[in-house]
Amino acid sequence: MNAASTSALEIFRPRLLQRRDRLQAASKSISAADLDLLISEIDAALQRIDNGSYGLCETCHDTIEADRLERDQLVRFCLDHLSESELRAHQQDLDLATQIQSKLLPPRGIALEDWDTHYRYEPVGAVGGDYCELIVLGDGHSLFFAVGDVAGKGVAASLLMTHLSAIFRILLSLDLPLADVVSRANRLFCESTAAAQYATLVCGRATKNGVELCNAGHCMPLLLRQHATERFDSTGLPLGLFCGAQYTVRHSSLDEGDSLVLYSDGITEAQDPEGNEYDEPRLIRSLRDRFHQDTGAVADGVLRDVARYRDTRPPHDDMTLLIVRRR
Ligand SMILES: [Zn+2]
Fold first, then answer.
1. How far is the CA of 56 from the centre of ligand 1 (A)?
2. Which end of the chain, N or C, is less packed with Cβ atoms under 10 Å?
3. CA-to-CA distance for 88 and 91, rounded, in angstroms?
4. How far is the CA of 87 from the centre of ligand 1 (A)?
5. How far apart (Å, rounded) are the C-alpha atoms in residues 315 and 294?
6. β-bridge partners, 199
């Protein structure tokens, strides 16, 4: 017995039977014809479990994507072999997800009295699993910023990303110290997601006194000063791995013109046609070359540089770059 049919028997059969019961209980609220159609679809799925063809695409006989079966136990075709109407529905779902996600992104070019910011968010597909946040906090004088990367890709990762975004927005309204915000976000993320789901994240708060930073397993933020570049090590586990994880915060003062740069590994792991990675030293060089440009020009310039480096190789991961500069 293969893995698909084992899980089909153990997990999907009871779910299908339960769905059948629920349908019958609700039979008064739908037409008899609709009810018959839905019941026959469920019975056909149960039959596929019995004859061992459950979870296999009816066109190519390959395994259907596990996350799609998990969401809908009645799917009969893999993504490559959807019918035209299914394909249209799938595209509509993706378009809607793209719209929802774009509304969650912060406005471009938020500026406070002491700070200029800019970011670029380039998902590799219709939706991304990177988290990018910039929020002016309640006092109107400080700024919360974050870049994160949710494990996985596509719609599933983008859903987790929106979940993370909601958690942070709620916690930020409570006016807690930064380390508490991250510890609580970790606990909430742990308790509300599956064991294999996690996110790396670096976030911070910029005030007139400088910046506070907290790094939960994410690529090191870079602090570009006039004559030197500093890197901030991760001091904590990714979010979602361990409910009791504690996080520490580092403080740093920035001089006029200094920039803090947060990014996702889609940038440093971008590959040229030979498979070599763009890497952190090249990113630092690209940023330093643009030290005196405004933040928007720096962000655009770096992403152009990455695109030039990739050349003919298509991007394979979401890319986020966020710059916070002391005015
Ligand atoms: Zn197929």
1. 8
2. N
3. 5
4. 13
5. 26
6. 150, 239
